[in-house]
Specification:
Layout: E1 4-5, H1 8-30, E2 35-41, H2 45-60, E3 64-70, H3 76-87, E4 94-97, H4 107-113, H5 125-133, H6 141-153, E5 161-165, H7 172-181, E6 185-189, H8 196-200, E7 205-208, E8 226-229, E9 233-236, E10 239-241, H9 246-250, E11 255-256, H10 264-283
Parallel strand pairs: 1-11, 2-3, 2-4, 5-6, 5-7, 7-8, 8-11
Antiparallel strand pairs: 9-10
Bound molecules: guanine.
Length: 284
């Protein structure tokens, strides 16, 4: 039987709807909307697209947003000063500095300057540390979105083997920790893993986040597995593909995310959720 296609667009819409309802409740209780500050440095076209969609999503969720655009040659101190001002701005509950930053600016320094309670990307070491030890934290958006998609398939993670291909700080490592917190047995694979296909074949849940077009083939998939494809690879002007060979994998898997329309839309939806979460938490 062909796999169920996991409709990330629909799930993301329902999460945004829920965030909008909670944002309205917040406004009723506290007399203002939750607020997100988005900081963009330079004019990278991809970053511009992301920032525009984040602002649009805020508008759709009744979340106040403001954009701070700085030139590509801005001094690091100026960016850090802006972040500090936003840290103490009572209208602002979430701060997102769009990455990547120009080479002369330390991304680590910028992330570490964001107040952990306003770090809606979940990148601050305090939030990462809380995730590691299983304490409540603002969680990075893409991994949180992946977990929501897996949850909605109805698959029980307890005791299952989850294989994460990719060990980035933004996706691979945090999603592995989240799967572990749900009592999966977790294997993290990467470019030096020996016999990757064999490891993948043992996965009840496979998360692919390597950034290589269609690297993971249908015959690497265990029959009945849940496959989450985080890859977004442009192979032609109008053609995006994931890290998984979709046609091959969907003939074997029980459920699979498409690219586009799978994990992608979830990132911004979870960002909206984090903004509302951060706003309520600041009032507690
Ligand atoms: N650039 C690409 N993805 C992201 C993200 O999730 N957050 C930020 N801040 N920058 C990004």
């Amino acid at each position: 039987m062909p796999a169920t296609i996991i409709d990330g667009k629909a799930v993301a819409a329902s999460i945004r709807q829920d965030a909008a309802e909670r944002a309205a409740r917040f406004k009723e209780e506290y007399g203002r909307a939750p607020g997100l500050a988005v900081v963009i440095v330079g004019d990278d076209p991809a970053s511009r697209v992301y920032v525009n969609s984040k602002k649009k999503a805020c508008a759709g969720c009744s979340i106040y947003s403001e954009e701070h655009t700085l030139p590509a040659n801005v001094a690091e101190t100026e960016l850090l000063d802006l972040v500090r001002r936003l840290n103490s701005d009572p209208k602002i509950d979430g701060i997102l500095v769009q990455l990547p930053l120009p080479d002369h600016i330390s991304e680590d320094k910028v992330i570490e300057t964001i107040a952990p309670a306003k770090d809606v990307d979940g990148f601050h070491p305090i939030n990462v540390g809380n995730l590691v030890v299983g304490k409540p934290a603002l969680r990075p958006c893409t991994p949180a979105g992946i977990m929501e998609l897996i949850r909605r398939t109805g698959v029980e993670l307890k005791g299952k083997h989850a294989v994460v291909v990719g060990r980035s700080n933004i996706v691979g490592k945090p999603v592995a920790l989240m799967l572990l917190a749900q009592h999966a047995t977790v294997t993290i694979c990467h470019s030096r893993t020996v016999d990757l296909p064999s490891v993948c074949r043992t996965a009840d849940v496979l998360v692919a986040a390597v950034g290589r077009p269609e690297m993971i083939k249908g015959d690497w998939i265990k029959p009945g597995a849940v496959v989450i494809d985080v890859g977004v690879n442009r192979i032609a002007e109008k053609k995006l593909v994931g890290d998984v060979d979709f046609d091959g994998a969907s003939a074997v898997a029980a459920a699979i995310t498409p690219v586009p329309g799978g994990v992608g839309p979830m990132t911004i939806a979870m960002l909206m959720q984090n903004c509302v979460e951060a706003a309520f938490a600041a009032q507690r």
